[in-house]
Write a structure and sequence with these properties.
Layout lengths: L3 H8 L8 E8 L19 H15 L10 H10 L6 E5 L2 H9 L9 E9 L18 E3 L6 H6 L1 E5 L2 E2 L4 E2 L12 E6 L4 H10 L4 H4 L5
Amino acid sequence: ITSFKDYIDKVDIDVLLEYRIMLYRGQSSKNPLLPSISRKGNAANTTNNERKVLEEFKRRSYQLINNTFSNDWEWLIFAQHYGLKTRLLDWTGNPLTALWFACVSEKKINEDSYVYRLWTDTTDLVNTTLDDPFSIQETKILCPALNSQRIVAQDGWFTAHAYSESEKKFIELEHDESLSNNIIEIVIPANLKEELLGTLSRMGINSRSIFPEIN
C-alpha cells in the first residue's frame, strides 16, 4: 500500500457477497500462518498433549473464573486469551483492527508488516455443537461466542487448525488446499506505520479500544 486510503481501497472490495465471510489478520513479520501450538515446529502431532493440558487448565481454573463454558471450543478461546498455546489462530472481521496489529510493535516499527485477508463461506464454519476441536480433519473457521470484552472489541474470529495425518504436520494456511486461493497478502511499508497508527487512533482504533479490560 502507499497510504491509508490505498489500504481502505484494497480491503473495501465487492467480492464480499451475502454468503461470504471476510476476515483479516495483522502481523508485524512475515511468519507462516500457523497457530501458536505449532510455531516452533509444525511436524509434531500435539493433539494428545493439547487435550491433557486443556483438561488441566479447566481443573485449575474453576475457582478462579466466573464464566460458564458450554464446550471445549469456548475453553480453548479462553485459554488462548491467557497465553496457553492452542490450535487457534486469531483473525478479526475488522480490517482496521488488523492494520493496528500489523503496525503496533515498537520492535518492528522499522520493518515492513503484513495484513492477510481471507474470505470463505459458511460451509467452512465449525459446528461447535457437533465438532470436537481435537478431532477435526481440516482447517475450519470458528465464529466465537461473544463472551468476553476483548472478542467483542476486536471482532474476533479464529481459524481452527487440524493436524494432517497425510502430511504429518500442521499445514500453513497459505499452503492449505481448500483455503490458500482465498488469501491475499497486503504489505504495510515501514515508512507508513507511524502515520497509520496516528490515523487509526483518531478513528478510535488504539490500545484502549482493542484491549478494553484491566490489562
